[in-house]
Amino acid sequence: MKKFVSITISDSRSENNEIPDLSGETLIKILTQLNLDLFEKIIVADEKEEIHNAIEKFTTVDEVDLIVTTGGTGISDRDITPEVTKKFIEKDIPGIPELIRASSFEKINTSVLYRGYCGLVKNKIILNLPGSPGGVKDGLALFKKILPHMFEILDGKQGH
User: How far apart are CA 102 and CA 154, in angstroms?
Assistant: First the structure.
């Protein structure tokens, strides 16, 4: 069974504070409904080093197939998740974030400010999602349609 990591990037959430991580919970709920196993869930601050260390940690774990971040994809000074993620990506998959932006525009026009990345690092998929539960839900509704095909290709079961 494929395993995923949930990384919430937020200055207002932490593992031991009282504010619930609704975006992370939404992400986990949707991906587990797709029969993916949660390998680990972590929350880190909007700090370059913390985000970098979290992503780097899981790129070296063989059991992890998918790394999904939520948060830090907007345009504020603190939103640096895409810049950190981009440094890890070996093969960019720009169509997925483009689809998320375009498809979400009719629902919420500020979706054009989403700057997330999707790509491959060490044969793992990495995806940045917005920090809101709705953004996570909408993004994964689109991503889940292509995810099985992506896994087949990465597993060598589907060629072109």
Answer: 26
